[in-house]
Write the structure tokens for this entry.
Amino acid sequence: MVSVHGRVSSGYEGVTEAFAANFARHGDAGAACAVYRNGQPVVDVWAGVADHVSGRPWTEDTVQLVFSATKGLTAACVNLLIERGQLALDEPIAMRWPEFAAAGKHAIPLRWALCHKAGLAAVEGDLTLADVLAWHPVVAAIAAQAPNWEPGTAHGYHMRSFGWILGEVVRRVTKRSIGRFFADEIARPLGLDAWIGLPEAVLPRCARLIPPEHPLAIEELLGADSLTARVWSGPSHLFAYDEMWNRPEILRAEMPSSNGVMSARALARFYAALAGEVDGARLLAPGTLAAAGVVQAEGPDRVLMLPSTYGLGFILQPMLAPGAGPRAVGHPGAGGSLGFVDPETGLAFGYVTTRMKFDLTGDERTRGLVAALYRAL
């Protein structure tokens, strides 16, 4: 029986029970879960091992790679700049990034990049991993390429290009990288253990990812040249959900779609501050968050090949978190991590885990946690 550590407020004990059940029934090895309600922490628990190889235990300050849950952080940066008047949803990206206008992309607005309608899901060009981690070569490749489909006519999950496109827009406007902007404007004011580009000094606190036992064999099912396979493994078939994500150079780079590292506590606190004050700080005005939660794209997804629903950078229901409120706004990450806020209930949720699992019907671990959370209301 796993020992669960941390704190839980009266009435939320069921969340801790569901968290413990993930270890007993669903294979969790090391994980953490945190919940805020109306700006106050009500659940902050952790258990298991942070490194299954060395046996290093998960502790209060352990942090974890969260894959695409990073997109919520990136979306908040862009929405914050929109709120400040430094960006506009319907202005062409090329106004801020002139090179992006190449190959017929001159009219693509920021809105389409936020809701996966830009038609740039697969990054073209022959890139090395060093090119991707260095930032400038990969954004130059995106600027030079033609769209994968006619922009604005359909949506498809921009699995990694989302972060590079939006991150370069942020860099052009603020003269700061997306990781620096997030650190300065969001993480530091809120005291978040969260990074896009992990500092060297924090590497020893990072949990070791356990790749999935049964990876999705996209290339075998659809062919290596299919759009889905090129997005899933791209750019240049460089990526797979394996041990590569434990490499320090991957964690240190800024990949604002994919390699955010944070605690569950930071993820929940971040979402709590999107919807209200947390210790006197609030990230977005109510109208900004409300606009970000309006559906911009829904229906068949050209990349995921399933129905998907996107707002302004965030994933929305029913795709986001089965069992959460209908107006919940957030983003899951490959293999199990999840962060969201439900403005109607004041709940903000964060879950991070070492063990990656892929289930197209939804992750049983977060499904159980969310169900227990809403039973506590």
Remarks:
- The longest strand covers residues 40-48.
- The chain is about 30% helix and 15% strand.
- The chain has one domain: 5-375.
- The domain at 5-375 is CATH 3.40.710.10 (Beta-lactamase).
